[in-house]
Specification:
With 278 residues, the chain is an alpha/beta fold. The chain has a single domain, classed as NADP-dependent oxidoreductase domain (TIM Barrel, Alpha-Beta Barrel), CATH 3.20.20. The chain is 37% helix and 13% strand. An 8-stranded parallel beta sheet has the order 3-4-5-6-7-8-9-10. The longest helix has 15 residues. The model has no long low-confidence stretch (mean pLDDT 98).
């Protein structure tokens, strides 16, 4: 198990870059005041990792939230993603430039392919390798790539992806995929760690929250970290942003880690990477 210390703790990517293992996701946060305040509140209260994407249509607000915070841009680990319709070599380079402009920055800390698109993703990856070689992005990675998608990409890749961001929660553990990613140096990262809110209905979660005197969200987010999985719960509410990060004064016992693992039933709340049409 990796060392988990505090809100600004990091896991090291295979290229040596330190990535904060806890961050704020801004999916569905409205551009403008809502996302600006969410980002500003998170950074001002110790977060150092912000995850957005071009398709979220809130990159401008994310950039503004960083500017309005008390934290320097260089101290923020900023992530965005190339959308499916922008995949391909030239179009990825253009999409990256457009994201930088909206975010008001001249580099990203991590850029991800949002979804696997077969042969097109190979051209996208070549563009991302170029951006990495040119030091316009500190790390490059993938999102929603299952094992066979990764195995399809690797023979044409000069650089192994540093991160794979996946739907991950107690109902969708995909331990074999985690183990595969770790075996080739890819850091696993969770999206939708709270099961789109469904986590709060589980009796097991209620029992563990009572046992540890923590919230259900804090239990599952701590489980993520103890599994070695970076996590980015999304919220626009200040109190929830602060509560989600209150994870560093307790540790889940190994038998309870196994209990949460045992809830796996391969259930997705988001799209299936093998069957989506966008």
């Amino acid at each position: 198990m990796r060392t988990i210390t505090d809100l600004q703790g990091t896991f090291q990517l295979h290229n040596g870059v330190e990535m904060p293992y806890f961050g704020l996701g801004v999916y569905l946060s409205k551009d403008g005041k809502e996302v600006i305040n969410a980002v500003k509140n998170a950074l001002d209260h110790g977060y150092r990792h912000i995850d957005t994407a071009s398709i979220y249509n809130n990159e401008e607000g994310v950039g503004e939230g960083i500017k309005q915070s008390t934290v320097d841009r260089k101290d923020v680990f900023l992530v965005s993603k190339v959308w499916n319709t922008d995949q391909g070599y030239d179009s990825t380079l253009k999409a990256f430039d457009a994201s930088l402009e909206r975010l008001g920055t001249d580099y990203l800390d991590l850029y991800l392919i949002h979804w696997p698109k077969g042969e097109k993703s190979k051209e996208t990856w070549k563009a991302m390798e170029r951006l990495y070689d040119e030091k316009r992005v500190r790390a490059i990675g993938i999102s929603n790539f299952l094992k066979h998608h990764i195995e399809d990409l690797l023979p044409d890749a000069k650089i192994v992806p540093m991160v794979n961001q996946m739907e991950f929660h107690p109902y969708l553990v995909q331990q074999e995929l985690i183990d595969f990613c770790h075996s080739i140096g890819i850091q696993y990262e969770a999206w939708s760690p709270l099961m789109q809110g469904n986590i709060f209905d589980l009796d097991t979660m209620k029992e563990l929250a009572k046992k540890y005197n923590k919230t259900i969200a804090q239990i599952v987010l701590r489980w993520d970290l103890q599994k070695g999985v970076i996590t980015i719960p999304k919220s626009s509410k200040k109190e929830r942003i602060l509560s989600n990060a209150d994870l560093f004064d307790f540790e889940i016992e190994s038998n309870d880690i196994r209990l949460l693992d045992s809830l796996n039933c391969d259930k997705r709340f988001g799209p299936d990477p093998d069957n989506f049409d966008f």
